[in-house]
Amino acid sequence: MPTKSQWISSSPQSKSPSFSDVKIDWPNINYLPASISSIASVTPSSGKIPYFTGMESAALADFGSVGMQVVAATSQSVARAAIDAASSGHTHTSPSSGSWWTGYAKVGADGVCEIGKYLDFHGSASDTSDYTGRIFVESGNFQFFGCPIRTRDGVLSSASPSYGFISEEGLGWYRYSSGKIGVMSGGANTAIIGPSSISPGSDNSKTCGEPNLRWSVFYGATAVINTSDARKKTTPRKFTDAEIKAASVLAKEISIFQFLDSIEEKGAENARLHCGMTVQRCMEIMRSFGLDPFRYGMICYDSWPESLEYKQPTFSEGSELTVVDDYGNLVGSVNFPGECLDDYVVIKAAGDIYGLRETQVAFFIARGQEARISAMEERLGLV
Fold first, then answer.
1. pLDDT per position as a tens digit, 34-81
2. Chain-centroid distance, C-alpha 314
3. pLDDT at 326
4. Are 52 and 29 in contact (CB under 8 A)?
């Protein structure tokens, strides 16, 4: 067997060795010179030996009857094929079921690239750390280490926020402007989140909550501010006699009550006491004086149609699904003669609810009380 120095000699050997005598030690193969063409011409049995000058380039030493011919690899894939064909014990195989953490990733004919648990990134070629950024899977969740996740600014179109959902276009969030995140729904700005405020996507166009999806409590350091700019209003008019009379009667309807759902949750002894009046009684009094309650912004009424809520109930074929309203009252049922194709449909019953804008009610009553006081003062000769 020729020595290493004999193998790289530029002068021909007096005797050509048999190819069967050649043993390639892969961990040490890098002792070959950068120019493989300097190896002496040999005439072993036909075969190919891969030779590397780095991962970006490779060559094949083709040993034929005429001698050695150097064939440069034209691409990474050609170099990889050379390795697979010639390196016994070092074949590059793809990860597979039961052995996901071994082998080399490659794209299959189906377009799938199987990789192991970790995917490491390095910010520069000279990086000596284990990773600059890492993506890995743990307990069924993606986890990101090393560096923050960032995406493009803004939106490509009304249907393409920076972070969105495949199943619904125009839903997601994005960078609205410096220091602010925009939330999109239905392809339109729904909310803007900034360092000191959360705002609707456009002025006076969004509600906070819905009639059948109400917030339980609002906490605030100051009171609610309502638009009261004279430039936004018609010229104020005085109360009519009917309005003053209705306001005086409404004052007598202020009473103490408890909420039924609170009693159900806490019991009558623990449910808190509230003061005010019912909308229905307020409307009744206003009508008794010839007033249309719905002409006044203090009276509110909302309704909603039957809708679908996407949950994950479990029911057998032919079972009955109970339908209740927002207060837990039974309003009906739906029979499922067969499997529900969506697997997660629940009917939300139609409903309605009345409400009061209590600050306006208070102003309305206050005007009636002022009229009563002024009438008394006039009778007593105090004015």
1. 444 433 333 333 444 444 444 333 444 443 333 333 344 445 555 555
2. 26
3. 56
4. yes
Query: Under the phi-then-psi rule, with left for phi > 0, alpha for psi from -120 to 50, and beta for the rest, what region is 137?
Result: beta
pLDDT at 337 over 60: no
Place of tokens 């339908």: 323
Burial of 58: CB neighbours in 10 Å, binned 0-12, 13-18, 19+: buried
What is the C-alpha to C-alpha distance for residues 239 and 261, in angstroms, rounded to an integer? 37
The pTM assigned to this predicted structure is 0.56
Q: What is the dihedral of CA 53, 10, 60, 74, to 10 degrees?
A: 60
Q: Token pair of 337, please?
A: 């003669």
Size (the chain), residues: 383
- Burial of 253: CB neighbours in 10 Å, binned 0-12, 13-18, 19+: middle
Integer Cα distance of 108 and 114 in angstroms: 9
**Is residue 350 within 8 Å of residue 304, measured between CB atoms?**
yes
Judged by DSSP in three states, 348 sits in strand
C-alpha 150: how far from chain center = 14
Q: What are phi and psi of 144, to 5 degrees?
A: -120, 125
Using CA atoms, how far apart are residues 225 and 229, in angstroms rounded to an integer? 11
Query: 116: buried, middle or exposed (CB in 10 Å: 19+, 13-18, 0-12)?
Result: middle
Rounded to whole angstroms, the Cα distance separating 58 from 302 reads 75
pLDDT at 126: 87
- Which pLDDT tens digit goes with each residue over 130-168? 888 899 888 878 888 887 777 767 776 667 788 888 778
Give all strands (DSSP E) within the chain, no chain letters.
47-54, 57-63, 68-72, 118-121, 133-138, 141-145, 163-165, 168-177, 180-185, 188-193, 198-200, 255-257, 274-276, 299-304, 307-310, 320-324, 330-335, 345-348, 351-356
How many whole angstroms separate alpha carbon 294 and alpha carbon 356?
11
Q: Cα–chain-centroid distance for residue 152? A: 16
Which burial class, exposed, middle or buried, applies to 50 when counting CB atoms under 10 A from its CB (0-12, 13-18, 19+)?
buried
Contact 166, 153 (CB under 8 A): no
CA nearest 240: which of 195, 290, 206?
290
